[in-house]
Structures are given as structure tokens and as C-alpha cells.
User: Which sequence fits this backbone?
């Protein structure tokens, strides 16, 4: 059974969002997604300064036999990327909720309200 | 029954009985009569092996093997005997794509060696397991550049082989990408024109060296000019010449591509050859096609596998970098065996002998005063001359002496009026070269 | 212990394996090219001829070819590759021809191309083929280019979407993207067949056409094929036939007669040319009459008994340097002549008989997800009675221990444990019975000795590989390998 943590917001395409300040969030993929993919061998994430748009692809995760696009849960500017994942993509499998991909400055903090609660996400993957 | 069908009548009866049916046609019962083939194919009846052999002998006799003094993308280099011996082994010839690594280490290992050799020759970081040919490899290199830079336009040197240009144009047109030519000056690509056309919309710049005319181009300062705009520098190179000429890496190229026919494969009426495609590590995930990588098995033994498959069509489907599936694997074995047996010294000798032969012919032809060099640029084994003698006359005279050479570039494109191509490899003997000179001297 | 050396590891400085003629013109030297010369190091093997031959002979022994044993790889049609085809492709003048030679010196070569083209057209029920595409996927791309060009020529610019069933090979959607068109994926029903309602819903005046494999990727014939082609044609689209499974239909059904307008053939599947460890194959593209002018350049034409090459203005352009994988084409033509019509008529029947015989014999041990007869290949969805949760991968790997190649696994994607078996018509009852015996034995082992299956294969040159390491470490060349070992 895959982990779904409290204190995180989710979307159906298996990304999580964690609020770190009023207008800044971390984004990653869920434990469930990491399990489905298997051993992650590569993550493709945008550079600092790039902007992402809610609903659009902003990167990809690859395992040996699958590749999956990552969809932006929110709109904003990338202000930090997790450099560790480039060299050690396996961190995603070790702890998907620790292995954040990017930190984003929100353009529109209300967007967070549209995201799923842990309970709602849990239902979506059942 | 036919020799490739092992089924005896008894076998078929036994199988039908097991299936509880009375004729094979019952298995096709769900197919509507509307589409079932009525009657037979309008094709010749079965031929015995002897008749097939005779038939192809007859077709073969309708061809004429000629002494080749032209290149234009296909080079009549010497092929060591061991290439055919090794590439004919059924273990290599009849096996499928190495998706089951436990019983495909043969294929995987030579692909790894092939990639290593292309890596060494180009000086870049990573080669894939091969592409269809040099022209499609170059078109895919353009796609890579567009994909990496997220731009939609490439610059193509006018001095590329027109076949390569045509294939790139087709690929770009259908994909919805754009291109512009960099003009040529004195037979080589015009740096000033490149400078003028470079801008932030350009995904990549494609050049060929030695170029279509056989001339060697100088790329000093070019990579800086291209990289200033974060565009990619794409070089189409004859890999046989990379043993002696500046490598793509030394020129600052991001992608190298071309046709490997010159490394051990026959002319074969143009195919099969194979294309190579190599790039720097940063762009490896945008490299199309199969890639072989090193790993270990569960006992820790060295092993090779197809890897980074998540880039490919069978996983990424409509989002794949390329639709390529089959490559030219067996042809990569030609290249691997050839490059193994020749080594660095052999490649140097092949290039030097070709250089000497070509330059001897070049000087002799200029001395006839019937042929002129319109470009006066350095060349290696292939060169282009201008003449006012009619091409038909040249072609006819050479044909009468069983020589294929002095090919009219005008027949490829009208803009190459009065230009003819020569190529001399290490295979051409002194007697053959002197014969060519004698025939051409006699023309007016 | 199997042979384990790379050619680079046999290298000894100054050892040579080649011999070249002496120089005739020493007054010239390549060093005259001065600053155009390479300065960086070049590491290539330095080996003797025997070193080299022995190396590759030993390396070849780690491969499994069609002549080693049964090769029931679904969707790949691993039939016997006749020796006469090899002889013809290699021993005659064809290997020495330059395509730019004067036309009168290449008449035999042009004629073979032309005659093969005519034979393929007859077998397919189409008007003309171009043999220039190099492989199946290349053929798909070229066929889609024909489709796009056709609509553009009619100024019907809206038609940019291609309907593809979700059960299709990955190359179909990938080729569509490369051709600058958009994929509309439609769902298959539980039998993997086109769902007519989904198809109807997808049709519009933006549809360029539809790509379809028939029999489909589950080895089942699309019964509704006439309705499908009619629906797409009525909506103004063209039908593309993916020839991957053509072997099933040889002698029974012609794609043109089912209403297809464009198709490709994999010569390396249906027409017996060797797979070469992944290529070269060849992917000729054929079309109906009204599309002939769009076929790629160069074309080969015939006037009385004279063959010539031509570039045509209305063509979609050029997609290859010359005439495709020409020597592969020769092999295919040799195969067609050898069989002749009476034997070509039997290919599909015998291939289908073999597949159904296997289907019937294994249905108690492996789960059959689809009722009814299959065509040239049969799909199982893993073991039937499977208390130890043995996966399809384990079954496949165990087959290698018994000296047989694995079937295609995990495709079609419709099922989770797909095992796709294509025996082809060139396999005998004895070979097939032996395969059935082994498959039953493995099903038994799955119950009695699951650990054995989980670590299979054990009798092969290497055991299971670490694919995750390969993808993370990214060691693609001998240079990378040396660097990795230094660390």
C-alpha cells in the first residue's frame, strides 16, 4: 500500500504539492506514482527561471520500461530545482515525499484550493 | 509439399484432428466472403532453386560491373575478406533485435563496440546503434536540434549532398519545420552568409565535410558563432575520413552524423548502408534509436543491454523522439569488423593512398588543359572539375572503357553546369588511373 | 565460462590485421592537409586477422539465431531465411553497382526492383509500390506522407488527424507525430477489435485517415473491416494498412480488397529476409491507383523492355538516399520466385494452422483471454493455475534454458501478462510439439519449483541483467567503460 501523507495536496495525475510559505510550494510525484513506474532512472525537470502552467506538462520521469510526463498542479515560476535528483534519481523511489522536484513561486495562490486533499487523492487511486 | 513447409499430409491431418476441424479453411471461417481472395495470385509458378539461381544470374548479366571513379556519397573502398565471413554467420544474420539479452550478447556486444568506434572517430560522447542511412540520420539530427532547442528552423549548407538535402527537406516539410540554405562560396560553405543568417530562431546548422564537391571545409570560429545563439552545430561527416581529418569534437560540433558505407560496406546499388548519429552526453535523451549500454548480470558478469528505452516509440508512442524501430544492425557489424581490422594505422593508410591517387589524377587532368579547378580548395579523395567537353561525350568514352567516373553534377542539379565529379580510392590501380587519363586526354 | 572479451581488450600496439597496396605516388602525402588534420587521440583496436575472426566467431556464439532453434516471437514472423537468397544477394554483380552508373549498365538491377514491385502489388491488391523505405516504421512514415500529400493536393488542409486503435504498435502513433499529424486514439473492445462506436465518434472532416493492423496485434481478424473502411472513406479519410501481420493473410486476403488505400510491407517478416539482429529490413509502401503519383522519388519505370529512373514533380519528395535496402529487396524477390504462386497461396494457411494447434494444446495451462480461432499468432495472458505468482517474464526466461527463443511478452498491452506466440509456417509438427511439451513443463515447474523460474535462465551465456544500473550509469562506449572502472 503506497503512502499518502497529510499536509500535502494532490492532483489526479499523481503530483503532490506542499506549501512552504504563502506563495511558495514544492512539487513532486506521489509514492503511488513512483511505485507504478518502478526504479526511476531519470528525471527531466525545468530550470530555475522557467515558468510552469497549471495543467501543462513541465517535465518527465523515466524508469526502465516506462516514461511518464509530469503535469504542473499550479502556475508560477521555478525558483529552485532539486539538483540531487539529477545525479540520484533513485531518491524518488526511496522517499517520494522527500524527493521534491521543483520549488515554485505561485502566480495565483488560489489555485491550491482546486487540488485534492489526501482523502480525495486516496479515493482517486483506489 | 514445398521445401520451406515441413508439413506432410499426415501432419496436417493430425493437426486438424486435434483442432476438431476438417480443413484449414475453417480457421478462416470468420472472414467474410467479400474480402476472401478469389482465385490465385497473378504470379509465376514455383521455380526450382536452380531456376531461381539462373534467373538472377541472367538479371546480373544485364548489369555491368564498372571501374568506379565517382563517389557522391558511396565510396568504392576495399573490403577485407573477413567482413563477409563474419557477417554471414547465422547467429548474427538471422537473429532478432536483442530484446532478450541473455541470448543476444553477440549482437549487443558488437553494437557496444560499434558505438565505441563511432565515439572514438567523432570524439563525441555517445553514438546510437545505427540509423537507416546518412541522409535520414542527418534529417533526424535536425529533428534533435529542434527538439532540444524548442525551435523550428535549421540552416543547411548548400554544399551538402543533394540527396541528403532532399531527404532533410521532406522530413522537415512534413513535420512542420522550416529551413534556409547557407550559400556556398568557392565550393565551400560561406561563413559570412552563416553569420548573417544566425539568430535566436535557429535550432541547428548543418554542414558536410568533405562536402558534396569533395572539398574540405574550415570551421574555425563556426561553433562559437552557432553556440552564441544556443543553436546546435551538426556535422555530416564521412566516417572513413575521421581517421585523419579534424574530428567533429575538435570542431566543436554537438551532433555528428553521416553514412558508414565507407567503413566496410559494399556499394550494393545504394543499400543497405547505415547511418551513424552521435552527440554529446547532455543530449543523449534526445538521441533517437536504440542505444546499447554496459551492465552486469545477476552473477556480476559483464553484460550489455538495450537501454534508455523509455525514449523510444514502443514506450513513448506519439511522444517518442522518433518513430525509428528497426535499424541497420548487421551493417553496424560490417563497420565494427572493418574498423577492428584496419585500426588507426589502416584508416590512415587508406586515406593516404586515396589522397595520393586522387591528387595524381587531379594534376594529370589539369595538365590536359581540358579540365579546370573552379574552386582551388583542399580535398582528400574526391574532387570536382569544370569542363566544356560535353558530358555525354565523356560518359560515352568512359563507358566504352568500362569506367564509371567524371559523373556530371548537372544531372543531379541544373545549378552545377559543366561540373564533373571524380573520386579515387585506394582500390584504384595505377593502370586504371592511367587508362582514365588516357581516355579523357583523347577527348575534345 | 563463455567468451568474455571486447575487441579493444585484444589490442596490442602496432599489431596489424590488414594489407593494402604499396603507394604509387609518394610525392603526395595526406599530411599536406596540415591544419585540417586530426590532432586528438584516436583509440581503435590493433589486432591480427586471426584475433579478429576468432573474436567475432566467439562473440557470435552468444547469440541465438533462427538456425539455432525455435523462434516463436509474436509479431516478428521469424521464419526460415533461405540460403539461396543470401547467395543471390551476395555473389552477383548487384553488390558492386553504383546507383549513378549509366542506366544501360544497371538494367538488371532496375528490372529486379521493378518486378518485385509488381509482385508485391499483386499480392497486396494495390497499384504500385515504392521499395525505397528502409524499414516498417519508415514505411509507415512514408505512407502517412502520401496520405497527407493527398489531402493537401485537394486543398483539404483541415485533415491533420489520424485515427489509431489503442492496441496498435507504438510505431503507428510515433510515425504520425513525425509526419506532423495528430493522433486520435480509439479504444478497442475486450477482444482487441476496433470499437465501431468509438470509431464513429472520432470521425470528422479533420480526419486524414486511419491506421490499422489486420489481423490486429492480438492475432485476431477484424470482422468488421468492410464497415470500418467504409466509415472512414465516407468521412473523407484514407485507410492505412500496417503490414506487420501480413503473413497471416498470404493466399487468403489482399489488403487492397479490404479497402485499404496505402500500406507497408515488412520484407523481413513476410518475405523471409533475415532480421540481422535488428536490421536491415525493408519497408516497401504500396498505394491504390489514385495515390501513385505521390510515391517518393526516385521511381523506377519501364518502357517496353527498358528500365529507367525518374523523379516526379507530384511526388511527396525523397525519403532515402537511393533505392532502399536494395540487397534485402533482392532476397525477397528470390523468395517470391522460389515459392511461386502455388506456395505463396499456402503461407497464411500453414502459419495459421500452426498457431491454432499451439493455442489448442496450451489452453489448459495458459490463460486464453480471447475466444475463437486466432490467425498466425496466439496470445495468452499468463499461466492459468499459478499459485506462486510466476510472471510471464519468468516463463519466457525459462524457455531460453530449453534452447528456444522467448515469445513476445508484455505486448499487446491490453493484457497484463501477455505471451504472444507466432510459430510461422516453416516450423514442423515435431518442433511445435516439442515447444508445447516444454511450455507444459514450465507450467508444471511454476507450481513445483517457482524459485527456479524466478532466477531463470541459468543455461545461457549470461543470467538476468541489471537494466536499472544500465540506465543510470549510462556507459555507452569503451571509453565510458574505462572511465567507470577507474573510479
Assistant:
Amino acid at each position: 500500500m503506497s503512502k499518502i501523507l497529510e499536509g500535502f495536496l494532490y492532483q489526479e495525475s499523481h503530483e503532490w504539492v506542499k506549501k512552504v510559505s504563502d506563495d511558495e510550494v514544492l512539487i513532486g510525484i506521489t509514492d503511488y506514482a513512483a511505485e507504478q513506474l518502478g526504479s526511476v532512472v531519470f528525471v527531466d525537470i525545468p530550470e530555475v527561471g522557467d515558468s510552469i502552467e497549471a495543467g501543462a506538462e513541465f517535465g518527465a520521469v523515466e524508469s526502465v520500461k516506462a516514461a511518464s510526463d509530469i503535469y504542473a498542479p499550479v502556475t508560477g515560476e521555478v525558483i529552485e530545482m532539486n539538483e540531487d535528483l539529477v545525479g540520484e534519481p533513485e531518491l524518488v523511489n526511496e522517499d517520494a515525499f522527500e524527493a521534491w522536484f521543483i520549488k515554485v513561486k505561485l502566480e495565483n495562490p488560489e489555485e491550491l484550493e482546486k487540488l485534492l486533499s489526501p482523502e480525495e487523492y486516496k479515493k482517486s487511486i483506489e | 509439399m514445398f521445401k520451406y513447409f515441413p508439413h506432410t499430409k499426415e501432419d496436417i491431418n493430425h493437426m486438424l484432428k486435434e483442432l476438431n476441424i476438417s480443413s484449414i479453411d475453417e480457421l478462416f471461417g470468420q472472414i467474410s466472403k467479400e474480402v476472401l481472395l478469389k482465385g490465385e495470385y497473378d504470379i509465376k509458378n514455383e521455380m526450382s532453386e536452380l531456376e531461381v539461381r539462373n534467373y538472377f544470374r541472367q538479371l546480373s548479366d544485364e548489369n555491368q560491373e564498372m571501374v568506379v571513379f565517382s563517389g557522391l556519397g558511396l565510396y568504392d573502398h576495399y573490403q577485407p575478406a573477413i567482413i563477409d565471413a563474419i557477417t554471414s554467420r547465422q547467429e548474427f544474420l538471422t537473429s532478432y533485435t536483442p530484446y532478450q539479452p541473455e541470448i543476444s550478447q553477440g549482437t549487443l556486444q558488437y553494437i557496444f563496440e560499434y558505438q565505441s568506434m563511432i565515439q572514438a572517430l567523432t570524439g563525441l560522447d555517445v553514438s546510437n546503434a545505427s540509423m537507416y542511412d546518412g541522409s535520414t540520420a542527418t534529417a533526424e539530427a535536425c529533428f534533435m536540434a529542434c527538439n532540444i532547442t524548442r525551435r523550428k528552423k535549421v540552416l543547411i549548407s548548400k554544399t551538402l549532398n543533394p540527396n541528403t538535402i532532399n531527404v532533410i527537406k521532406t522530413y522537415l516539410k512534413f513535420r512542420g519545420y522550416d529551413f534556409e540554405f547557407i550559400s556556398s562560396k568557392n565550393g565551400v560553405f560561406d561563413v559570412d552568409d552563416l553569420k548573417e543568417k544566425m539568430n535566436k530562431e535557429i535550432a541547428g546548422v548543418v554542414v558536410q565535410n568533405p562536402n558534396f564537391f569533395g572539398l574540405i571545409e574550415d570551421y574555425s570560429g563556426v561553433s562559437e558563432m552557432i553556440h552564441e545563439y544556443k543553436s546546435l552545430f551538426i556535422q555530416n561527416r564521412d566516417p572513413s575520413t575521421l581517421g585523419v581529418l579534424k574530428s567533429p569534437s575538435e570542431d566543436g560540433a554537438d551532433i555528428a552524423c553521416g553514412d558508414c558505407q565507407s567503413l566496410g560496406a559494399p556499394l550494393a546499388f545504394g543499400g543497405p548502408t547505415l547511418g551513424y548519429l552521435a552527440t554529446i552526453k547532455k543530449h543523449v535523451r534526445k538521441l533517437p534509436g536504440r542505444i546499447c549500454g554496459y551492465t552486469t548480470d545477476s552473477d556480476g558478469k559483464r553484460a550489455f543491454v538495450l537501454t534508455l528505452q523509455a525514449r523510444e516509440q514502443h514506450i513513448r508512442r506519439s511522444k517518442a523522439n522518433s518513430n525509428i524501430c528497426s535499424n541497420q544492425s548487421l551493417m553496424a557489424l560490417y563497420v565494427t569488423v572493418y574498423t577492428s581490422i584496419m585500426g588507426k594505422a589502416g584508416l590512415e593508410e587508406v586515406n593516404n593512398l586515396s589522397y595520393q591517387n586522387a591528387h595524381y589524377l587531379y594534376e594529370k587532368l589539369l595538365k590536359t588543359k581540358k579540365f579546370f579547378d573552379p574552386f582551388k580548395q583542399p580535398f582528400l579523395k574526391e574532387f570536382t572539375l569544370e569542363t566544356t567537353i560535353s558530358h555525354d561525350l565523356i560518359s560515352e568514352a568512359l563507358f566504352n572503357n568500362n569506367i564509371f567516373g567524371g559523373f556530371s553534377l548537372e544531372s543531379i542539379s541544373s545549378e552545377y553546369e559543366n561540373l564533373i565529379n571524380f573520386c579515387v580510392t585506394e582500390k584504384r590501380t595505377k593502370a586504371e588511373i592511367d587508362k582514365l587519363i588516357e581516355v579523357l586526354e583523347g577527348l575534345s | 565460462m563463455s567468451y568474455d572479451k571486447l575487441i579493444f581488450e585484444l589490442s596490442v600496439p602496432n599489431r596489424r590485421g590488414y594489407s593494402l597496396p604499396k603507394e604509387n605516388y609518394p610525392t603526395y602525402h595526406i599530411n599536406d592537409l596540415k591544419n585540417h588534420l586530426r590532432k586528438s587521440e584516436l583509440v581503435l583496436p590493433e589486432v591480427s586477422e586471426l584475433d579478429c575472426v576468432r573474436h567475432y566467431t566467439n562473440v557470435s556464439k552468444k547469440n541465438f539465431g533462427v538456425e539455432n532453434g525455435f523462434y516463436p516471437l509474436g509479431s516478428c514472423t521469424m521464419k526460415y531465411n533461405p540460403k539461396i537468397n543470401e547467395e543471390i544477394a551476395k555473389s552477383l554483380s548487384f553488390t558492386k553497382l553504383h546507383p549513378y552508373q549509366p542506366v544501360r549498365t544497371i538494367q538488371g538491377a532496375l528490372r529486379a526492383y521493378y518486378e518485385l514491385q509488381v509482385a508485391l502489388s499483386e499480392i497486396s491488391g494495390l497499384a504500385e509500390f515504392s521499395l525505397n523505405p528502409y524499414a516498417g516504421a519508415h514505411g509507415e512514415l512514408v505512407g502517412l506522407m502520401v496520405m497527407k500529400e493527398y489531402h493537401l493536393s485537394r486543398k483539404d488542409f483541415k485533415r491533420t488527424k489520424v485515427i489509431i486503435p489503442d492496441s496498435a504498435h507504438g510505431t503507428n502513433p510515433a510515425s504520425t507525430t513525425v509526419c506532423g499529424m495528430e493522433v486520435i486514439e480509439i479504444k478497442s473492445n475486450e477482444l482487441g477489435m476496433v470499437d465501431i462506436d468509438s470509431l464513429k465518434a472520432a470521425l470528422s472532416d479533420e480526419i486524414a485517415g486511419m491506421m490499422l493492423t489486420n489481423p490486429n496485434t492480438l492475432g485476431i481478424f477484424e470482422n468488421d473491416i468492410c464497415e470500418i473502411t467504409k466509415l472512414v472513406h465516407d468521412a473523407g479519410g484514407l485507410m492505412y494498412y500496417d503490414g506487420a501481420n501480413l503473413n497471416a493473410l498470404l493466399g487468403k486476403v489482399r489488403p487492397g480488397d479490404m479497402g485499404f488505400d496505402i500500406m507497408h510491407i515488412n520484407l523481413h517478416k513476410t518475405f523471409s529476409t533475415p532480421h540481422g539482429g535488428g536490421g536491415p529490413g525493408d519497408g516497401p509502401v504500396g498505394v491504390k491507383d489514385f495515390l501513385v503519383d505521390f510515391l517518393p522519388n526516385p521511381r523506377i519505370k519501364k518502357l517496353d523492355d527498358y528500365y529507367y529512373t525518374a523523379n516526379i514533380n507530384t511526388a511527396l519528395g525523397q525519403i532515402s538516399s537511393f533505392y532502399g535496402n536494395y540487397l534485402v529487396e533482392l532476397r525477397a524477390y528470390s523468395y517470391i520466385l522460389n515459392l511461386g504462386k502455388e506456395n505463396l497461396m499456402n503461407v497464411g494457411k500453414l502459419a495459421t494452422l500452426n498457431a491454432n494447434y499451439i493455442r489448442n494444446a496450451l489452453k489448459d495451462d495458459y490463460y486464453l483471454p480471447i475466444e475463437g480461432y486466432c490467425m498466425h499468432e496466439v496470445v495468452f495472458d499468463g499461466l492459468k493455475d499459478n499459485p506462486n505468482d510466476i510472471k510471464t517474464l519468468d516463463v519466457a526466461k525459462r524457455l531460453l534454458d530449453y534452447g528456444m527463443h522467448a515469445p513476445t511478452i508484455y505486448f499487446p498491452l491490453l493484457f497484463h501478462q501477455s505471451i504472444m506466440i507466432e510459430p510461422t509456417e516453416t516450423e514442423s509438427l515435431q518442433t511445435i510439439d516439442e515447444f508445447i511439451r516444454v511450455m507444459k513443463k514450465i507450467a508444471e515447474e511454476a507450481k513445483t519449483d517457482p524459485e527456479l523460474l524466478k532466477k531463470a535462465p541459468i543455461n545461457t551465456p549470461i543470467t538476468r541483467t541489471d537494466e536499472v544500473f544500465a540506465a543510470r550509469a549510462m556507459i555507452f562506449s569503451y571509453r565510458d567503460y574505462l572511465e567507470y572502472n577507474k573510479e
In short: Chain C touches chain B through 199 residues (CB under 8 Å). Chain C has a mean pLDDT of 96. Chain C has 14 helices and twelve strands.
